[in-house]
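Title: Comparing notes on inverse folding

I've been comparing how different people in this forum approach sequence design from structure. To keep things fair, I'm posting one structure and asking everyone to reply with a full sequence. Here's the target:
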């Protein structure tokens, strides 16, 4: 099974999360045969969703609850072209900071809402990491990643 991680980041934290998840999932002893690839959002476009397999959006939040700069082109392209994503299954790991109470984790929330509008279906709950919580995002990701992978395997039998 193929898993594509799409990373929206400003200062690299979301990328650390993706790297951690690659380590957790790329276990050679695992029978699942996962093929994991991470793409920074600025290096891709809406056509990425025609790939096979499952997607995981890993994105932080900036400005007034905006997606990070490197995610803007992809987000706007999806919003304007409105491709049919009804064959897409995805997960969402958002990063934010509760200090920004009004816009906490809105980057992930925006992607989640847009993907659903376009027909994509999420696997599992939308995760919201909180930078003010003291929990490292990589640690949260490693713990969450195991359970999410089990949900993926349930949703999409190999
Ligand atoms: C200037 C600035 C604005 C931010 N705005 C928000 C926000 O509106 N909502 C939120 O939940 N987090 C906000 N954050 C917190 C970041 O999303 C959080 O620190 C995240 O872990 C950064 O991940 P990154 O390094 O991958 O970009 C902001 C951080 C900065 C520095």
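Reply #1:
Here's my take.
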């Amino acid at each position: 099974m193929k898993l594509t991680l799409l990373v929206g980041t400003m200062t690299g934290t979301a990328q650390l999360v993706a790297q951690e998840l690659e380590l957790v999932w790329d276990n050679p002893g695992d029978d699942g045969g996962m093929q994991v690839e991470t793409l920074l959002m600025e290096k891709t476009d809406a056509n990425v969703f025609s790939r096979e397999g499952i997607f995981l959006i890993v994105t932080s939040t900036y400005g007034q609850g905006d997606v990070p700069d490197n995610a803007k082109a992809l987000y706007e392209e999806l919003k304007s072209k409105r491709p049919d994503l009804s064959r897409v299954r995805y997960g969402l790991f958002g990063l934010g900071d509760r200090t920004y109470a009004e816009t906490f984790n809105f980057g992930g929330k925006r992607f989640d809402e847009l993907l659903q509008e376009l027909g994509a279906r999420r696997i599992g709950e939308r995760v919201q990491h909180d930078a003010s919580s003291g929990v490292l995002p990589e640690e949260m990701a490693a713990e969450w990643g195991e359970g999410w992978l089990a949900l993926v395997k349930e949703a999409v039998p190999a």
